[in-house]
């Protein structure tokens, strides 16, 4: 259900028609999305699309020129009225960890707990360090820790004042791919255990899908689709989302009915009805997992590229000048470059857009 069908303040974070920028024009416009209590959301998009700008507005560092931001039912940003960052109960975790180099790990985590009694504060710090599995490193300094450990300290520090919402700005981008994957799942588990809501900014789609319940795909400062990962992949709202999310190639087709398309890959039948007239020219999205190997098939495209990836191999196939596509096969199906391979399309979710 689109978030703004609800009129009550059900949402933890409710961003409505937000517009903001630096100086004259807006960098982001008409941005709307809403996050439930305990949910992890994501702003995903190419470099420069406005992800960090939205995060700055949420944190209270950037005033808004249009729309509003509501947290727990309270407006915290309106044009001309910005609740200061320290009054928002929003925690932040940055890409570069931003730890204090001259403070120990325990002191870093306890930094935001100045008002607490000494004993209480120590107990809280140790509890947080335990949560991120760093209790044995309490007396070390940041430079003695690995990047992944430092980022866990940064998370513990952000969690210490018990924020309502945590903003994570490309938190794993300084880490290698393997650690990135593990840490993103660890962080998801920690946030879910605590029931803390978070908003992650990333341009890494796998990270967004692994960690987040809902994702906003952004382009040029506008939300293209705010949805669960499954729908972004299988029901992309437009061509940009279809091309940006997952792998895939567009091939030409022609509508023959509301759910049927003729193409060089044969007569394709989808499971949802479109509104186009028979004869409408279309671009049809073919995902690598829509193509299956079928010895009986008369469709025999030629292998033009092959990328071995351990358990599977990604093939690029050529049918004609206009029709090239990819297929992912288990790697025991081993074909040579130039070989003609019998395949067929098996796409439950047939995605197509009218050709412009
Ligand atoms: N402080 C600033 N002053 C003026 N323009 C800025 C400022 N910060 C960002 N911009 C511009 O706003 C646009 C969006 O930038 P933003 O940092 O929000 O993008 P992003 O999606 O977070 O990109 P990246 O993934 O590269 O960090 C860009 O065109 C950028 O040049």
Q: Give the low-confidence spans.
A: 1-6
Number of separate structural domains: 2
Subunit arrangement of the protein: single chain
Which geometry do the CA atoms define?
globular
Quote the average pLDDT.
92
Class per helix and strand makeup: alpha+beta
- Give the % helix: 10-25%
Describe the largest sheet. 6 strands, mixed
| Named CATH architecture of the largest domain | 3-Layer(aba) Sandwich
CATH class category name of the largest domain = Alpha Beta
Distance between the termini: 29 Å
Strand residues, percent: 25-35%
- Radius of gyration over all CA atoms, rounded: 24 Å
> What is the tally of helical segments?
8
The CATH topology of the largest domain comes to Rossmann fold
Q: What series of H and E elements makes up the topology?
A: EEEHEEEEHHHEHEHEEHHEEEEEEEEEE
Bound compounds, each kind once, are: adenosine-5'-triphosphate
Question: Superfamily at the CATH H level of the largest domain?
Answer: P-loop containing nucleotide triphosphate hydrolases
- Major beta sheet, strand line-up: 7-8-9-3-10-11
- Total beta strand runs: 21
Task: Reconstruct the topology from this structure.
Layout: E1 13-20, E2 28-35, E3 40-44, H1 51-59, E4 66-71, E5 74-78, E6 81-82, E7 90-93, H2 105-110, H3 118-131, H4 147-159, E8 165-169, H5 177-194, E9 197-202, H6 205-211, E10 214-219, E11 222-227, H7 229-234, H8 239-244, E12 249-257, E13 260-263, E14 266-269, E15 281-286, E16 291-293, E17 302-309, E18 312-318, E19 324-330, E20 343-345, E21 351-354
Parallel strand pairs: 3-9, 3-10, 7-8, 8-9
Antiparallel strand pairs: 1-2, 1-4, 4-5, 5-6, 10-11, 12-13, 12-15, 13-14, 15-21, 16-20, 17-18, 18-19
Helix pairs in contact: 3-4
The structure holds adenosine-5'-triphosphate (ATP).
Pfam family, one: TOBE_2
Keywords: ATP-binding, Cell membrane, Ion transport, Iron, Iron transport, Membrane, Nucleotide-binding, Transport
Domain ABC transporter: 10-245
């Amino acid at each position: 259900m689109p978030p703004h069908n609800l009129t009550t303040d059900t949402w933890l974070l409710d961003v409505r028609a937000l517009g903001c920028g630096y100086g004259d024009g807006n960098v982001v416009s008409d941005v709307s999305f809403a996050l439930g209590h305990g949910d992890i959301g994501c702003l995903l998009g190419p470099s420069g699309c406005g992800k960090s700008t939205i995060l700055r507005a949420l944190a209270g560092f950037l005033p808004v020129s249009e729309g509003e931001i509501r947290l727990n039912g309270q407006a915290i940003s309106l044009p001309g009225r910005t609740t200061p960052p320290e009054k928002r109960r929003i925690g932040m975790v940055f890409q570069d960890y931003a730890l204090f180099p001259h403070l120990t790990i325990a002191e870093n985590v306890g930094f935001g707990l100045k008002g607490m009694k000494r004993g209480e504060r120590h107990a809280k710090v140790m509890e947080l360090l335990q949560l991120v599995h760093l209790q044995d490193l309490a007396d070390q300094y940041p430079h003695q820790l690995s990047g992944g450990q430092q980022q866990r300290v940064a998370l513990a520090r952000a969690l210490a004042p018990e924020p309502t919402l945590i903003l994570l700005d490309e938190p794993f981008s300084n880490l290698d791919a393997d650690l990135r994957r593990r840490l993103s799942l660890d962080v998801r588990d920690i946030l879910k255990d605590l029931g803390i809501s978070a908003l992650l900014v990333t341009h890494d789609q796998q990270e967004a899908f692994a960690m987040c319940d809902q994702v906003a795909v952004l382009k040029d400062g506008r939300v293209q689709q705010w949805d669960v990962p499954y729908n972004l992949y299988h029901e992309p709202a437009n061509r940009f989302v279809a091309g940006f999310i997952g792998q895939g190639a567009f091939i030409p087709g022609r509508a023959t009915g509301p759910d049927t398309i003729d193409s060089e890959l044969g007569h394709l039948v989808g499971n949802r009805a479109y509104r186009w007239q028979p004869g409408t020219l279309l671009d049809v999205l073919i995902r690598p997992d829509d193509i299956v190997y079928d010895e009986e098939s008369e469709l025999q495209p030629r292998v033009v590229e092959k990328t071995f990836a351990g358990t599977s191999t990604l093939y690029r196939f050529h049918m004609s000048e206009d029709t090239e596509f990819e297929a992912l096969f288990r790697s025991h199906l081993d074909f040579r470059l130039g070989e003609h391979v019998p395949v067929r399309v098996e796409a439950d979710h047939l995605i197509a857009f009218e050709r412009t």
